[in-house]
Design brief:
single chain; alpha/beta; two-stranded antiparallel ribbon; 9 helices; about 30% helix; about 25% strand
Length: about 280
C-alpha cells in the first residue's frame, strides 16, 4: 500500500485530497474505489489488496473525510465538488479509462461520472445505492450525521459505530479496522474523522426522495448493483427497476443492511468476477 495526494480546486480555494493505492503503479488498468458519506478509503483495504494483482487500485478519501482536507465553506460539500476532485485525481493518474467501485455516496459519484459525455468510466459497481435514494433512508442517516460525539476510548467509538452501521457479519478484527481508520484522537477523547459540516446540505431543507434516474439512464457500460438484504437505501423495488436496463447485474448480500463492506471472499469475489471477465 502506498499513499498519495492531489491538489484540487473548490469554489473557495485549493484543498488536498489524499488517497491510498495498491498494486503496480505502472499498471494502466486502474480501479477507483470510493467510500460512503462518513467513511474513508481504508474501507477498501481488503478489496484493494485482493484485486491488486490485476489492477492499480486507488482509494481516495473524499474531501472532508479521512486524511483529506476539510472545506472552508460547508456549503461546498456537494457532488459538483466531489466529481471535480475525482476528475483531478484521474488526470493525475493519467487514466484513459477506469473501472469504479462506489459505496453509497461513492456510487452516486461514480454514477454521475459514468453518465457524463466522454466519461472514462468503463465498468461500474454500485454498492448499495441506486437510481433513487428513498427519503426514509436519508432521514435515518440524518439522525446521526453531523453530530460531534466524543468518546472516552476507541472501544466506545466502535460500539457507537456498530449501533448504527448494519455492515453484516464482520469479525472483531474487521470492526476494529473500520473503527480505527474512521477515528481521530483529540486530547483524551476520540472523535469521528470527518467534518461535521458535511451534513449541512443534507439538513438544509425538507427530506425528499432523491431521483437519480437521469444519471442512471445515461450510463452505457456494464453495471453490477450490490444490495444488502436488509438495506433501506437500495430497496428491492428500486433494484428491480434498475435491472430493466441492459447490461445490469445484481448481487445480494444476505444478513446485511446499508452497506456491505466487501471484506470477505464471497463479496469481493463477486466484484472480481464482474470486473475481470
Amino acid at each position: 500500500m502506498r499513499e498519495g495526494q492531489v491538489r484540487c480546486l473548490d469554489p473557495h480555494g485549493f484543498h488536498f485530497m489524499r488517497y491510498t493505492e495498491w498494486g503496480d503503479a505502472n499498471n494502466k488498468r486502474i480501479l477507483v474505489c470510493v467510500h460512503g458519506l462518513t467513511r474513508n478509503g481504508r474501507d477498501f483495504d481488503y478489496l484493494a489488496e485482493s484485486l491488486s494483482d490485476a489492477y492499480r487500485v486507488v482509494c481516495p478519501d473524499v474531501v472532508g473525510r479521512g486524511r483529506s482536507d476539510w472545506l472552508r465553506d460547508p456549503a461546498d460539500y456537494a457532488f459538483p465538488v466531489y466529481c471535480a476532485d475525482m476528475a483531478t485525481l484521474l488526470a493525475s493518474l493519467q487514466a484513459e479509462t477506469v473501472d469504479w467501485v462506489g459505496t453509497s455516496m461513492g456510487g452516486i459519484i461514480g454514477m454521475i461520472l459514468a453518465a457524463t459525455p466522454g466519461s472514462p468510466v468503463r465498468k461500474l459497481v454500485l454498492n448499495d445505492v441506486g437510481s433513487v435514494v428513498p427519503k426514509e433512508a436519508l432521514q435515518r442517516i440524518g439522525q446521526y450525521v453531523g453530530l460531534e460525539p466524543a468518546f472516552d476510548s476507541l472501544e466506545a467509538l466502535e460500539a457507537a459505530m456498530r449501533a448504527v452501521s448494519p455492515f453484516g457479519d464482520l469479525t472483531a478484527e474487521q470492526w476494529r479496522h473500520l473503527s480505527l481508520h474512521v477515528a481521530r484522537q483529540d486530547g483524551e477523547k476520540w472523535r469521528f474523522r470527518y467534518d461535521p459540516g458535511i451534513a449541512r446540505n443534507m439538513k438544509s431543507g425538507p427530506v425528499v426522495d432523491v431521483d437519480l434516474r437521469a444519471f442512471w439512464n445515461g450510463i452505457h457500460g456494464p453495471v453490477l448493483a450490490i444490495r444488502g438484504e436488509n438495506s433501506d437505501l437500495l430497496t428491492p423495488a428500486i433494484l428491480d427497476e434498475m435491472c430493466k436496463r441492459p447490461h445490469t447485474e445484481r448481487f445480494l448480500v444476505p444478513g446485511t443492511g446499508h452497506a456491505p463492506m466487501l471484506m470477505d471472499e464471497h463479496q469481493a469475489g463477486a466484484v472480481r468476477r464482474f470486473l475481470l471477465r
